[in-house]
Design a protein that fits this description.
heterodimer, A: 273 residues, alpha/beta, Rossmann fold, seven-stranded mixed beta sheet, four-stranded antiparallel beta sheet, B: 425 residues, mainly alpha, MetI-like fold, 3 domains, 64% helix, extended, binds adenosine-5'-triphosphate, binds magnesium ion, MetI-like_sf (chain B), transmembrane (chain B), transport (chain B)
Chain lengths: 273, 425
């Protein structure tokens, strides 16, 4: 089967596997995303379960980032981007025009591909979210939030002596963990991660993967990754995207051992991607 | 294949030519830099060569008899006692006594050697030290501008004599010979306003006028410019209207400044009936002129803030305003300040629009605020350069030095601020 046949099949088929779960944290139905006139996501139905880590994989340009950014309306910042469909966070319609994105983004946090700490101190980076949302009424309370967040991100021991040093002075891996600490400081319910390890070395990557496993006890996590091993190591379920379509969703083990769809198999065995 | 050359042979053949071209290119660059530098050097030697004399003035030593009766001061405690006192007479008597002059005509010629401002300086000094009264004291008194010009050129081959008669020159030579002529730091130049008498004319009035004008300009144009830039960059939808606004802002930056002067005349003075010649109106006009510069540089600075920082803030749930206030503005501030200071330097050097709104008036008093009639440094230079008295030539150069000094200071401040505030990420 060559690529053009894959493509034809991708357009014809409906998602295989089990995209829907009971008692979902987030549920998306019939999501279409357009950049100006160009469609980037075609009719995606997907549920994300409570305290589950869902990995999104697929070839470059297939729309993983685009889909992920719909989940906390980060796509609003792109003028030409238009989102259709129903996206729910529990009982809240995410794209309800009357919804304020500020509390939404406090509930659904995001970690970006490139570490992007603010050019401020480590402390101020982590304290920024709690400050703008008014989560701490006293200084000691804020100190506590900063410490627990840094501990959860596995960064506390490395930075506790230089909390007021610049966040940009950390190594790439430390910066990414700082960004994770900054995100969990506002205690979101869902954390979206877009290739959080793509700029990191294997050791820093291992630390972050460990961290994801720990965080999944309390948070729901959606992670985009290009590393099949990473998806296999950290996630419970895996969603495979292809040319803007959601091809297959299944338990991670099944996806990597016995995928239902030919395209998924072709991708994970490295025949294209 | 004997006739065909290999690639490396072809390359080698061209190599010499390429090197020569490269060398020529470097030479052109060096020549243009040298040309610019030599222009600067010529400009500065000329200005400084003429101007440094403007910072000193010639004084004549006289022993003045300060008897209260002759001065007409009955009681030094009385208000106005010094205002009506005849210090001018006292100075004249001291002058006649020093040079043994009795003839009426000669007396008049002698009077012309001392500046009319000398008696005011003497009055102020005696007022500060009333114990000087009723005795004789020696004072260095300000000489007339013709004497000043002559004395400053006395060592050259053909000293400038101007309107000085031979008789006056003889007196001056006598005084010079006995060490009763000197040049001293010209404090008047730094502390007083304009005057018809070159030796009394100072730069302070114009400097204050410039200060108030630029202050008004800064206070208005910086907040307005930054607000406009933030709106255009962060909030405005990208459509035909904002494109049109953008094009027009760029066009405004290219409009000759005199047009802004005419606009200010029509709007602020004719329509709003504000007074002429005041720094407030000058500042408003220069605000119109510098706004485009500030908007353009602020927009560039805002654009340069990495999108990842904005995404980080928005992703944490910051509102747009919080994102702008907490992250974009602090990061863009060095660039915006640099732009603003460069705009202010432009405004400081601007003459044409100020001429249109009457800041070209002859103002003796130091302005005390934005509503007082004033002139500005470049306009003062224009006025002095236009004056017939020879002594104004060095004043003009001295004023140019002061103006250039301020401009250097402002540019240095811009560089320092940029270094200081610049943060890397
Ligand atoms: N800002 C944008 N404007 C226009 N088109 C865009 C924009 N962002 C993404 N796209 C297009 O949408 C499609 C999906 O892009 P997306 O970034 O979601 O891919 P991705 O799966 O995340 O790829 P990668 O793995 O390389 O990050 C691509 O065809 C891309 O060209
Ligand atoms: Mg992506």
């Amino acid at each position: 089967m060559n690529i053009s046949e894959h493509t034809a099949q991708a357009h014809a088929d409906k998602t295989v596997g089990e995209p829907l779960v009971k008692n979902a944290k987030m549920s998306m139905r019939g999501v279409n995303v357009f950049y100006a006139d160009k469609q980037a996501i075609y009719g995606v139905d997907l549920d994300i379960g409570r305290n589950e880590v869902i990995a999104m994989i697929g070839p470059s340009g297939c729309g993983k980032s685009t889909f992920l950014r719909c989940l906390n309306r980060m796509n609003d910042t792109i003028d030409i981007c238009r989102v259709e469909g129903k996206l729910m966070l529990e009982n809240q319609d995410i794209y309800d025009p009357s919804l304020d994105v500020v509390p939404l983004r406090a509930r659904v946090g995001m970690v970006f591909q490139k570490p992007n700490p603010f050019p401020k101190s480590i402390y101020d980076n982590v304290a920024y979210g709690p400050r703008i949302h008014g989560l701490a009424s006293r200084r000691t309370e804020l100190d506590e939030i900063v410490e627990t967040s840094l501990r959860k991100a596995g960064l506390w021991d490395e930075v506790k002596d230089r909390l007021h040093g610049p966040g940009t002075g950390l190594s790439g891996g430390q910066q990414q963990r700082l960004c994770i600490a900054r995100t969990i400081a506002v205690s979101p319910e869902v954390i979206l991660m877009d290739e959080p390890c793509s700029a990191l070395d294997p050791i820093a990557t291992a630390k972050i993967e460990e961290l994801i496993a720990e965080l999944s006890e309390n948070y729901t996590i959606a992670i985009v990754t290009h590393s099949m091993q990473q998806a296999a190591r950290v996630s419970h379920r895996t969603a495979y995207f292809h040319l803007g379509k959601l091809i297959e969703v299944n338990d991670t083990e099944k996806v990597f051992t016995n995928p239902d769809h030919d395209l998924t198999e072709a991708y994970i065995t490295g025949r294209f991607g | 294949m004997t006739s065909a050359e290999s690639t490396i042979e072809k390359v080698n053949k061209n190599l010499a030519r390429r090197y020569r071209a490269e060398q020529r290119f470097r030479l052109y660059g060096i020549l243009s830099v040298l040309f610019g530098l030599s222009c600067l050097v010529v400009l500065f030697t000329d200005i400084i060569g003429k101007g440094y004399k403007g910072f000193v003035s010639t004084e004549i030593y006289l022993t003045v008899d300060l008897s209260s009766d002759d001065l007409g001061i009955s009681d030094p405690e009385v208000e106005n006692a010094f205002m009506q006192a005849d210090f001018e007479g006292a100075i004249k008597r001291a002058l006649y006594a020093r040079l043994d002059v009795t003839d009426r005509r000669a007396k008049r010629a002698l009077n012309a050697l001392i500046s009319s401002g000398a008696s005011y300086a003497l009055r102020d000094q005696v007022k500060r030290q009333p114990e000087l009264l009723d005795s004789s004291h020696g004072f260095w008194l300000l000489a007339d501008d013709d004497v000043d010009t002559w004395y400053k050129s006395v060592d050259s081959k053909s000293p400038f004599t101007g309107r000085l008669s031979d008789e006056q020159l003889t007196w001056l030579q006598t005084l010079d010979f006995s060490g009763e002529l000197r040049t001293a730091l010209n404090t008047t130049f730094f502390t007083s306003g304009d005057s018809r008498e070159p030796e009394m004319a100072g730069i302070m009035g114009a400097a204050l006028g410039s200060f108030f004008t630029v202050l008004v300009t800064l206070l208005l144009s910086f907040p307005i410019g930054v607000a406009a830039a933030v709106y255009l960059e962060e909030y405005a939808p990208k459509n035909r209207w904002t494109d049109l606004i953008e094009v027009n802002i760029n066009n405004l930056a290219a409009v000759p400044s005199i047009i802004f002067g005419l606009l200010g005349l029509a709007i602020f003075i004719n329509f709003f009936e504000m007074p002429r010649s005041i720094p407030l109106v000058g500042g408003l006009v220069l605000t119109l002129m510098t706004l485009p510069t500030i908007i353009i540089s602020s927009r560039a600075a805002i654009k340069a803030v990495p999108p990842s920082i904005r995404e980080a803030a928005l992703g944490l749930g910051a509102s747009k305003m919080q994102m702008v206030m907490h992250h974009v503005l602090p990061l863009a501030m060095p660039g915006m300040l640099t732009g603003a200071i460069i705009g202010m330097a432009q405004a400081l050097g601007e003459t044409a629009p100020l001429l249109m709104i009457g800041m070209v008036a002859f103002v003796v008093d130091l302005p005390g605020g934005v509503m007082d009639a004033a002139t500005a440094l470049p306009v003062q230079i224009f006025l002095w350069a236009d004056s017939p008295e020879r002594a104004f030539v060095e004043k003009t150069s001295a004023a140019i030095m002061v103006l250039l000094g301020f401009l250097f200071l402002m540019n240095a401040l811009a560089v320092w601020l940029r270094r200081r505030l610049e943060r890397r990420w």
